Amino acid sequence: MGLAFVGPYVVLMLAFGIIPAVYAVALAFSRADGGFAGLDNFVRVITDFRFLPAVQHVAVYLVLWLVMLTVLVVVLALVLHAVTTRWVSRALRLLYYLPGALAGASAVLLWLFVLNPDAGPAGPLLKAMGFETFAQTIQPGNLSLVFAVIAFWTGAGQWVIVMYGALNNIPTEVMEAARIDGANPVQIALRIQLPLLRKWIAYMAVLALAAGTQLFVEPTLLSQASTGVVPNDYSVNQLAYQYAFNLSDFNGAAAIAVLLLVVSVALSAVFVLRGGLFDTEEP
Amino acid sequence: MTTQTLERTRRRRSRGTDLSGWGGRGLGAVVLGVFLVFFAVPLLWLLIAVTKSGGDLVRSGAFTPGSVAGLVENWHDLFAFQSGAVGTWLVNSVMYSLGALVLTLLVSVPAGYVLALVRFPGRRLLLVVTLVVMLMPSTALVLPVFLEMSLLGLVGNPLSVILPFSFYPFGVYLAFIYFSTSIPADLLAAARLDGCSEMQVFLRVAVPLAAPVVALVGFFSFVQNWNNYFLPFVMLPASSTYPMQVGLTTLLSSTPAFNPSAAGSDSVQLSTLALATVISVLPVLVVFLFSQRFLVAGLTAGGTKE
After folding, report:
1. What span, in angstroms and rounded, lies between the C-alpha atoms of A82 and A158?
2. Contact state of A12 with B163 under an 8 Å Cβ cutoff
3. Which of A183, B18, B42, B250 is within CB 3.0–4.6 Å of A187 for a Cys-Cys bond?
4. Where is average pLDDT lowest: A237-241, A267-271, B248-252?
5. What chain B residue is nearest to A102 in terms of C-alpha separation?
């Protein structure tokens, strides 16, 4: 029975997890004619003049997003947790959470409006900040921040709710005891609540990193919407796409995919180990 | 009764004092308010935008509502675009994400069950590989999966999207956690003593008890696949096979406000594009509204049991 139950999963895992990963590695080390290429493909894509800027774009975006996500989500969860009026807290959680329904292309489309000083809801604000046209708001220097804000807008609410739930799980006795010992709310937050949230923060960072290194749909749509102001090789993943489908250089594309895979798994591993995600003892 | 009231006041006090220490309730309220505006106003604006004509969207105030007639007109324009392409895209989206949802559940629930409750050779290896694959971002594998599909001659076929969507290690992991923590082994043993075959134990005892995890896996799978862009973008080159998310790109490049070269007979107004955005997320939004409470319970419960 075991085999019948687990068999379909193993087949799918081989077909869409392991074989593609192995295939990508094999391609990355092969020449177009199939011979062994050593590190040639990696050297070619890394020395491509578009590669370093793309890495830089994604790295800046990731740092901005991760900082925003961890700091603001934790602050929001702590403040929300202190709200005593039940319906206010419930309503706020729901409203923070709703943008999560707009992931991917839909969220980008909405933000194309928001970033448009002529038509969108933020028009007066953008004009006050000196942005008169859509092309000015999405000038290349702003993009990492723009993508980080979009990602935060869609993703943060779910994490606020998760952190809020984790805060609720802290036993009242623990909080009470700290208060009796004379701890003020800031001390309670730093010494008790934050350490107990550590696993969740690490978990959030892992998922955010894995998703963030793959930046694709946002710059692709912006590139279309801006008729070229945003280049179509802005992110690393876009560059891989260009290699595969415009240059028909699947070996180069695979080399980029492998680099991305290694970097994102390595980054995740750091957070998994440092965050104690696999510790068995209860916090 | 007295203990109950005591308990209640105690609990209320234990939460109530927090805010004052953060530099007063005011500061907390400001933080919550600013973020309320940040999260909610774009959505509110979008819902207003769909009731206006393209011109009014630029001319009138951002939050001045339009009319029902405006909404109807946008609706007509949207579904008349490229002689009904939007309808096709929506049907495709439903087909791809529901197809993948059914397959995902059929595959991951039994797999999680066996991994949790049956000791078989290779079990540990399978668990470790599942964890590793979970950490691999699926978009990194899109290009090799594309090459695989083109070897099989499946590029352009809905299966090229549905099958990869159905591989969902996170779902297996959730089912595994659930079955190993929430179902007492005694219960299954009792069913076996009563003469149930292994298959009956699974179908009659385990599956009915697994409703929460089935809902959780189903929710994540549906939302993720509905919103997926990269895989269908690569696999399905013909407009008639696009899901809605990829179709949005076509609408965007037919909007003169963003792409001046698109001015022509089949061009899209800004407000029509706004309506397309709303329609593209409506199913997910509905699922979100209904699942909020249970989802939160599920997420945090899973966390504490680990």
Report:
1. 18
2. yes
3. A183
4. A267-271
5. B281
Convert the pLDDT of each residue in B122-179 to its tens digit. Answer: 888 888 888 888 877 777 788 889 989 998 999 999 999 999 999 999 899 889 888 8
> Which residue of chain A has the CA closest to B247?
A105
* Contact assignment for A82 to B15 by CB distance below 8 Å: yes
Whole-complex ipTM = 0.86
CB contact set of B110 (below 8 Å; sequence gap of 6+): A4, A5, A6, A8, A9, B202
| B39 neighbourhood in chain A, CB within 8 Å | 95-96, 98-99, 153, 156-157
Mean pLDDT of chain B: 82
DSSP three-state, residue B45:
helix
Answer whether A175's CB lies under 8 Å from A192's CB.
Answer: yes
d(C-alpha B58, C-alpha A123), whole Å: 10
Are B171 and B220 spatial neighbours (Cβ–Cβ below 8 Å)? yes
Query: Given B144, B172, B199, which is nearest A257 (Cβ)?
Result: B144
CB contact under 8 A, B303 and A168: no
Are A9 and B172 a contacting pair at CB < 8 A? yes
- Which of B45, B223, B300 minimises the CB distance to A165? B300
Q: What is the mean pLDDT of residues A269-282?
A: 62
The least confident of A163-172, B31-40, B81-90 is A163-172
Sign, CA dihedral A116-A119-A124-A130, equals positive
pLDDT at B301: 45
For residue B125, give the chain A residue with the closest CA: A10
For residue range A126-146, list pLDDT tens digits in order: 888 888 888 788 887 888 899
Average pLDDT over residues A166-183: 83
- Residues of chain B neighbouring A245 (CB-CB closer than 8 A): 234
pLDDT of residue B14: 45
Mutate to test the interface with A, among B227, B269, B299 (most CBs of A within 10 A): B227
Q: CA nearest A215: which of A70, A60, A41, A98?
A: A60
Q: Contact A188/B133, CB-based, under 8 Å?
A: no
Instruction: Pick A106's closest partner by Cβ from B31, B148, B280.
Output: B280
Under the banding of pLDDT at 50, 70 and 90, the label for residue B244 is very high
Collapsing DSSP states into helix, strand and coil, what is residue A49? Answer: coil
Q: Which residues pair with A30 in a beta bridge?
A: A36
Tell me the pLDDT tens digit for each residue of B33-51: 999 999 999 999 988 888 8
Structural domains for chain A: 56-235+262-274 (1.10.3720.10)
Q: Say how far apart CA A231 and CA A223 lie, in whole Å.
A: 6
Which among A100, A116, A211 has CB closest to B137?
Answer: A211
CB spacing of B113 vs A244 below 8 angstroms: no
